[in-house]
Amino acid sequence: MKTLIIYYSESGSTEIISKVLAYNLNADIVMIQDLKPRDGFKNRLTASFDAFRENKTEIYPPTLNLENYDLIYIGTPVWASKPSPAISTIIDSCDLRRKDVILFTTMTSSGGAATIEKLEKKVKARGGRVVETFTIKTKDKDMNRLMRDAESIIDILDLKIYK
Ligand SMILES: Cc1cc2nc3c(=O)[nH]c(=O)nc-3n(C[C@H](O)[C@H](O)[C@H](O)COP(=O)(O)O)c2cc1C
How far is the CA of 108 from the centre of ligand 1 (A)? Predict the structure, then answer.
């Protein structure tokens, strides 16, 4: 089974987790870039607003050819209890028919379940089948701790069975 990990990460936590998943699950990996600036206080306010309103954004790459993949992981930070605009935008441009999908979020405290619910609806609307979901809390965790958390999730959810 060929696996692709698609992620967006603004401050690096979702990226670390995605890389650990890719390494351990022998998956390809692609980062989605949000072409709107998201750093700094003012941009973060706009980011929350955009996520809350479920606004689309400009992304790179603008779409992905998933033809060669059977299993797709999609990872996003939680923003205002919603998926990041970059991840919402890429999902809406992808053909997920006949794809198994695993959704994951990172967050500091809350909103993971609501975000997963939103993503699940979007994936289903594109024809995908969600087979697993998980959320990792990132507050006060350094890189090593995040890596360990990602490795634990692989074991706890037995993610290697999808390989
Ligand atoms: C604009 C913005 C909105 C956020 N909203 C939430 C939220 O609603 N709930 C939460 O627990 N964390 C929230 N966070 C924190 C991030 O979800 C968390 O730090 C995440 O792990 C960051 O992932 P990243 O490093 O991959 O960008 C928010 C962060 C930003 C920048």
Answer: 6
